[in-house]
Amino acid sequence: FAIPLVLVEMVINFYHWLVRPADEASRIANRLIEEAKQQMGQQERVALVTGGTSGIGREVALALAMAGYRLILPARQKEKALQVVEELERLSGNAKIDFIEADLMELGSVL
Prior knowledge:
alpha/beta
C-alpha cells in the first residue's frame, strides 16, 4: 500500500497551516486543493481517512472533500461522526462523504 505523494504533502502543509496566520493558511489550503484537483483529473478518487472526526485527520478530510474526493471515515462514535460528515459536506459542498461505524483497535470491527 503506497501513500500518494499529494496526501503526504497535504498532511505536512496542514501541520504548517495550523501554526501560521489565517491568510497564509487560506493560501496554502487553496493551493493544496488546486494541486489535488489537477492530479485527480477526471477519475474519481476515494480516500479512507482514519482520525477524520477531529484534529489533523479532520483537516485532511476537509481538504480532500474540497478537492472532490469520495470520503470514507471510520469512527467509533456514530453521533459524532454524523455531525462531522454534515459539517464537512456543508463546508466543502461535497455530498460524497460516508462513515463506517468501526473501532479500528478491535480486529472484529474491521474484518
